[in-house]
Amino acid sequence: MANLTEISWKEFSSLSLEGKRPYLMQSAEDPMPYHTLFAQQFDRALLDRLCALSNRIRFINKSKEGALYLKNVLAHKRAMLYFSQPSSRTFLSHLAACQILGITTGSVRDAATASEFKGESREDSIRTFSSYFDMIIMRSPEQGLAEKMSWELSNSSRPIPILNAGSGKDQHPTQALLDIYTLVRSFEEKGGLDGRVVTFCGDLLRGRTVRSLSYLLTNFKDVKQIFVAPKELQVSDDVKSFLDAKGVKYELSDDLKAASSVSDAVYMTRIQDEWDTNKGESAKIDTSRFKFGAEELALLGKDAVIMHPLPRRDEIATCCDHDPRAMYWRQMRNGMWIRAALIAATFGHERTIMECGY
Ligand code: NCD
């Protein structure tokens, strides 16, 4: 099987995502990720396995005996949470996921408190973390850093897995996993996710959650995607090319009301103005028509769901918060379960948990 030790960084980094995929898996027989870097690593079979494992962990964790059993599964492991960009949910849900499995954690959340501040490169910092921990969960503003680190670590004397918890404007694979888990759960008793219409609205150009989820949705049959955004923030060409290559139906629009009336899920996102090249440039874009409020809610089907990776600003009016179709709170908690599932599976414990007596 392909192994990162058998390929130079130069060769690896020039491969397509499809080409990189086999190098990131645990083995040819089991294509579960070792390093989780991008959404395209997951196919339908893997998504089904991770959703099943999340359900199982969620169920086992309900009783004290079950929770104590889970706490023992990875009690011998340590994970480093290395977040050099702001985060609440992604940090806390990974932390909670580690706690569920009994993993001890350490964290750096601010590069100013670490040696990076003294001029240490991120590469050296990560090599340092690998001396003390068995997994690195990392968020970085630098696109491609998690990938570079995966190659570096796999080629070091302490090869340990990396989990990408958000890389630049590019990818946020574990968010996409929790979004899929939420969609699967929302429609599981209503005929499933296949054949549904999913609308993305907001900053689709710079929102990494949108990119990763859009890719993951292509694993489901006949899911149509509608991208609603001001033209300056419409989804980028690489996403469109990917969807074209997969033969996925999609539509670009600037009409959230029309999209809400035909969608099974509306995925709202905030304007990612931290990426503005000139300060204040996002504020000049008219985003008033890209907010979900009482009027859109009235147009939404009765079984449809409203989602948001959070944090929200004013893209979803608080009057929607108590509607049973508001799924963003549930989405957050689902993140904890599927991250616990992914971490357990990364350490080879999928079967142990699926087949345990609880
Ligand atoms: C998202 C992110 O960091 O990309 N947040 C998250 O992880 N839930 C979305 C955002 O910041 O808008």
What's the short version?
The protein has helices at residues 9-13, 17-20, 44-60, 64-73, 89-100, 122-132, 145-154, 173-187, 208-217, 237-246, 256-262, 294-299, 328-346, 350-354; strands spanning 78-83, 104-108, 135-140, 162-167, 197-201, 224-228, 250-253, 265-268, 305-307. It is an alpha/beta fold.
What distance lies between the first and last C-alpha atoms, to the nearest angstrom?
Answer: 34 Å
Relative helix content: 25-40%
Number of strands: 9
Q: Average pLDDT, to the nearest integer?
A: 96
User: From the helix content, strand content and strand pairing, which structural class follows?
Assistant: alpha/beta
Shape: globular
Q: Give, in spatial order, the strands making up the sheet with the most strands.
A: 7-6-5-8-9
> Which residues form runs of ≥5 with pLDDT under 50?
none
Report on the structure:
With 358 residues, the protein is of the alpha/beta class. Helix content is 39%, strand content 12%. The protein is built from 14 helices and 9 strands. Strands 7-6-5-8-9 form a 5-stranded parallel beta sheet, sandwiched between helices. The protein has a 4-stranded parallel beta sheet with strand order 2-1-3-4, sandwiched between helices. Helix 10 links the parallel strand 6 and strand 7. The radius of gyration is 20 Å and the shape is globular. The protein binds N-carbamoyl-L-aspartate. The site of N-carbamoyl-L-aspartate has 11 residues, from helix 5 and helix 9.
